[in-house]
């Protein structure tokens, strides 16, 4: 983000989850019913929404987080991490419940599996969205995921839409969504698996899929009311499906950024936060996706989530190197 963009960029409101990540590192992920030996354990700040807020803030955006934590050490850790990254926490409240947790296993290749327990996140309600009207009404982007109740997500999407903000929905953890939420969503972020689930399709093209394959996917999303979609493909980059763009620019494949992945946990959140930051600064969807691909790749080169996220200078160094 240039100095001029920083002066004119709109604010971001992220509504959703804050979790303590309980992570065990191992050579390989266990099969069902199997026990494997771990080789390290860590407790780190996480939660999709908190991660996205931290990622966007580190990349220069002005970010407000709406959420809930418990009155416990995990809640304190999450507040300390987010505030240290510059996120505004005036609408994160302490709930009469334990802080949400995620139990994560990470293998030697950086791949992971995750189980979450909502805890205080389960108390977040439309009333919290209404209480955050002061920041939502001034937002350029409202960023959402599905780690809190659907009624809360719907309320936040409606509030963002009514305020004229760009509503960004990360369709994760995957669940069926009502058409009303699709109609309120300006930009949908999904990985290939989530895209296939949403469209009821057996396959989503990989990075080697031809334009015709992705054109069919774009049209399928558009038929469901989603005109701007980003599909992430892990190490294979991402694809921009923008039915609002000029003909010839509606399908853009973003090349992967090659790094040595240590831990992929939270890389999707780094991508989402970076997209939100660039959209708030007025960037096009394709430009935001290209920028976010660098941020997400850098996030996988260190263990953990928020502590691993790059700042704006990190991304600029990669851009300046000409390696992407």
Task: Describe the protein in words.
- This protein has helices at about 5-10, 50-60, 75-85, 125-130, 135, 150-160, 180-185, 190-200, 210-225, 265-280, 285-300, 310-320; strands spanning about 10-15, 20-25, 40-45, 65-70, 90-95, 100-105, 110-115, 140-145, 165-170, 185-190, 230, 240, 250-255.
- The protein has about 325 residues and is of the alpha/beta class.
- The chain has a single domain, classed as UDP-N-acetylmuramoyl-L-alanine:D-glutamate ligase (3-Layer(aba) Sandwich), CATH 3.40.1190.20.
- The strands form two sheets. A nine-stranded mixed β-sheet has the order 5-4-1-8-9-10-11-12-13, with helices on both faces. The protein has a four-stranded mixed β-sheet with strand order 3-2-6-7.
Q: What overall form do the CA principal axes indicate?
A: globular
Number of separate domains: 1
CATH topology group: UDP-N-acetylmuramoyl-L-alanine:D-glutamate ligase
Biggest sheet: strands, sense, closure?
A: 9 strands, mixed
Radius of gyration: 18 Å
Which class of secondary structure composition applies to the elements?
alpha/beta
Average pLDDT figure = 92
**What's the total number of strands?**
13
Secondary-structure element order, N to C = HEEEHEHEEEHHEHEHEHHEEEHHH
Briefly, what CATH class?
A: Alpha Beta
β-strand percent reads 25-35%
The level of helicity is 25-40%
Number of helices: 12
- The CATH architecture comes to 3-Layer(aba) Sandwich
Q: Give the termini distance in whole angstroms.
A: 17 Å
Could you name the ranges where pLDDT drops below 50 across 5 or more consecutive residues?
1-8
CATH homologous superfamily? Ribokinase
